[in-house]
Amino acid sequence: MNKKVFSTSKAPKAVGPYSQAVESNGLIFVSGQLPVDASTGEFVPGGLKEQCIQVLKNISYILQEAGCSFDNVLKSTVYLSDIKDFAVMNEVYATFYNEPFPARVAFAVVSLPKGALVEIDVIAAR
User: Fold this and answer.
1) Are the CB atoms for 86 and 32 separated by under 8 Å?
2) Among 32, 34, 35, 109, which one is least packed by beta carbons within 10 Å?
3) CA angle in degrees (0–180, nearest 5) for 69-74-77
4) Domain segments of the chain: what residues?
5) What whole-number distance in Å separates Cα of residue 65 and Cα of residue 52?
6) Burial of 58 (0-12, 13-18, 19+ CB in 10 A)
């Protein structure tokens, strides 16, 4: 298997045994991103809207490192700490994507690392 790893200092460092992104056969798998500002190592201040913006910025930085953009995203998975936040997440999410939109699933989970309100991962293709 041909596997290439991508990493950028603009996005939070992996805090476990995983990579920010891995490419194989033209598919780029971006690990779930939390609302961490890489320059501070802390969550961005604010609520869900601000957290969504930071998560999507982190994904953007990683995609850029791989030579891609949101236009290359085929599928994303959105994990919310509260499904009542779906509309706010959807509003922010729409500002990062253009048609044709990728496939997506969004659902609530019991909890997210460090008490995050949102986490998102994506799969992109060259």
Assistant:
1) no
2) 109
3) 100
4) 4-125
5) 20
6) buried
Cβ neighbors of 68 (< 8 A, separation 6 or more) are 28, 124, 126
Nearest to 103 by CA among 69, 75, 123: 75
DSSP code at position 25: T
Length of the chain counted residue by residue: 126
Q: Which fold has domain 4-125?
A: 60s Ribosomal Protein L30; Chain: A; (3.30.1330)
- Provide long-range contacts, Cβ within 8 A and 24+ apart, for 108-112: 108/79, 108/80, 108/81, 108/82, 108/83, 109/79, 109/80, 109/81, 111/81, 112/34, 112/79, 112/81
pLDDT in tens, 23-65: 999 999 999 999 999 999 999 999 999 999 999 999 999 999 9
